[in-house]
Amino acid sequence: ISYNGTYDFEPKNEKASEAKQKFKKFSISVEDIAKVTKERAYSLCFNPSKDKILICAGDKVGNVGLWNLNQNSADRSDEIFQYRLHASPVSRIQFSSNEYGKMYTTS
């Protein structure tokens, strides 16, 4: 794989070929981007529940940000919530697989 603005590779099997075709259609617009943490992100996690899709990020100074992708407001401040949970980089974020709504962070 080489990078020159796009990834170009020869698929090794049919699944890889299908994935390559799907990625060719993939695009990101400015409206789809948000600054979830104040500083550089160190860890990411997402919660793909049926009710709410949350993107979580932990940054280099201990902040954890939650981005509610189900919100559709013109102002991103309604969608993103930031908390100072640690005094050092957040090394891992994980949602509980047993208890809905619980999230664990480590620093």
Descriptive notes:
The chain has one helix at 14-24, and strands at 2-3, 7-8, 41-48, 53-59, 63-68, 80-84, 92-95, 103-106. The protein is mostly beta strands. A 4-stranded antiparallel beta sheet has the order 3-4-5-6, with no helix packed on it. The longest helix is centred in the first third of the chain and has 11 residues, at 14-24. It starts with a strand and ends with a strand.
Which stretches are poorly predicted, pLDDT < 50 over at least 5 residues?
Answer: none
Q: Helix tally?
A: 1
Give a quick account of the main beta sheet: strands, pairing sense, barrel closure: 4 strands, antiparallel
List the helices and strands in order. EEHEEEEEE
Kindly state the mean pLDDT as a whole number? Answer: 82
Distance between the termini: 33 Å
- From the spread of the alpha carbons, the general shape counts as globular
Structural class: mainly beta
Name the helicity range. Answer: 10-25%
Largest sheet, spatial ordering of strands: 3-4-5-6
- Beta fraction: 35-45%
What Rg is obtained from the alpha carbons, in whole angstroms? Answer: 17 Å
Number of strands: 8
Task: Chart the SSEs and their pairings.
Elements: E1 2-3, E2 7-8, H1 14-24, E3 41-48, E4 53-59, E5 63-68, E6 80-84, E7 92-95, E8 103-106
Antiparallel strand pairs: 1-2, 3-4, 4-5, 5-6, 7-8
Q: Features of this protein?
A:
mainly beta, two-stranded antiparallel ribbon
